[in-house]
Design goal:
- The chain has eleven helices and 14 strands.
- By secondary structure, the chain is an alpha/beta fold.
- The protein folds into three domains: 198 residues, Rossmann fold (3-Layer(aba) Sandwich), CATH 3.40.50; 72 residues, no CATH class; 53 residues, no CATH class.
- The structure holds adenosine-5'-triphosphate and magnesium ion.
- Pfam families: AAA_21.
- It comes from Formosimonas limnophila.
């Protein structure tokens, strides 16, 4: 199941906003069929509203309200369907899905929509048992799934051990734990799963950088964000599903922000991710075709979606910041000093007292080996040769 395009008729500040998404059939999909769409834009431009609108459309019984979204093209069970109001394709699908849930026929692996809203803090409330049943539209929050993360890790490791043919029990546990950690390998985490507690009913124990063992509620904020959200998604075993994630970068170091999407995108197959983010690292990690910018149209004064149809001049974080996000990649003071010093060099006046003054200001901010200072030296050398 995936969405090719939506027309949000009215949701909060969004009115008649049309968004086109990349799908698992497009060339920008990974080899496992997962594809990542990014929605960027300034605070309050409606990123969360887009995710909410899509989620609500899937979550609300079809006949009970006026629809806020029109799905222009929508794919189900590998079949591409053009939206047709008269046929009400989505309504029929919704109804079928509901019936199969009611009859108990729905499997966890069936296609679904998953929504991970932005989440500032986590209270882990260990559950006595892992209760996972298929829900067509699943919001992941404190009440659902996140509290189960600890239980899931334990079951995941024990499940791997059961299937393992390694005879030595210690080696068997170690292999299972290594496999769990391998999902997070890219992130190069300082704290990793270390063991299941023999004293505390197999409670997962992590080892931190000081070599101390900690439980899941003692992880750092960033580690909680990463483990809890990724594990919640792993629990749902998504395939052929739509996955909405709001601000996956929360509490993550830029190096992790760079890697987080590759960790998500290795979960399941043929999933369509739609991500709302402020992170230049995340934006830089996807092909430009997968990027949608929400912005205010200066003439109509309404929010519109801009699809990137050509690559930015660079995909480094600085270019993304200035070209895509409209933010200064460097402090304004530095930009001004660069401009002034460059002028002196171009006029061969770099030895003048004013130029030396500017240079000394510059060298308070960055080293003589900076790219800019090297470029200026190059210009001077060129001239003197
Ligand atoms: N429940 C609501 N009802 C009505 N308007 C809302 C509601 N929630 C948010 N808004 C308004 O909709 C606009 C867009 O909000 P939204 O949360 O979608 O922005 P955003 O792009 O996600 O911003 P941010 O980057 O700060 O998260 C804001 O002006 C906000 O005040
Ligand atoms: Mg938001």
């Amino acid at each position: 199941m995936y969405i090719q395009s939506v027309d949000i008729k009215k949701c909060r500040i969004l009115e008649n906003v049309v968004l086109r998404f990349q799908t698992p059939n497009d060339i920008t999909a990974q080899t496992n069929g997962n594809v990542i769409n990014i929605i960027a834009g300034v605070n309050g431009c409606g990123k969360t509203s887009v995710l909410r609108a899509i989620y609500e459309e899937f979550n609300t019984p079809w006949n009970t309200r006026e629809s806020i979204i029109e799905f222009d093209a929508f794919s189900l069970n590998g079949q591409f369907l053009k939206h047709d109001k008269k046929l009400n394709v989505f309504g029929q699908f919704w109804h079928r899905q509901r019936q199969s849930i009611d009859k108990g026929e729905a499997k966890l692996s069936d296609e679904k929509l998953i929504f991970l809203p932005s989440q500032q803090s986590f209270d882990f409330q260990p559950q006595a048992q892992l209760e996972l049943k298929y829900v067509f539209a699943q919001e992941v929050n404190k009440r659902t799934l996140l509290g189960n993360a600890e239980f899931y890790i334990k079951e995941y490791v024990l499940g791997l051990e059961r299937k393992s043919d390694i005879a030595d029990p210690k080696a068997r546990t170690r292999a299972a734990i290594n496999e769990f950690n391998s999902h997070f390998l890219d992130a190069d985490l300082l704290t990793q799963l270390d063991d299941l507690s023999a004293e505390q009913f197999n409670r997962p124990l992590f080892k931190n950088v000081a070599g101390e063992r900690v439980t899941i509620d003692q992880l750092s904020d960033g580690e909680k964000q990463l483990y809890a959200r990724v594990i919640a998604l792993m629990m749902l075993q998504p395939q052929d599903s739509i996955i909405l994630i709001d601000e996956p970068e929360i509490a993550l170091h830029p190096a992790w922000q760079q890697k987080i999407m590759s960790i998500y995108a290795n979960i399941g197959q043929n999933n369509q991710f739609i991500i709302a983010t402020h992170s230049p690292q995340i934006i830089a990690s996807v092909p430009y075709q997968n990027l949608i910018l929400l912005r205010k149209n200066p003439e109509t004064r309404q929010i519109e979606a801009v699809h990137c149809d050509q690559p930015p001049t660079g995909v480094d974080v600085n270019s993304i910041l200035s070209e895509v996000m409209g933010a200064e990649a460097q402090p304004k003071k530095l930009t001004d000093l660069y401009r002034q010093y460059r002028e002196f060099v171009e006029n061969k006046e770099e030895h003048s007292p004013q130029a030396l003054q500017i240079k000394s200001e510059l060298l308070k901010l960055e080293s003589p080996e900076s790219a800019f200072m090297q470029e200026m030296q190059f210009l001077i050398d060129l001239r003197e040769d």
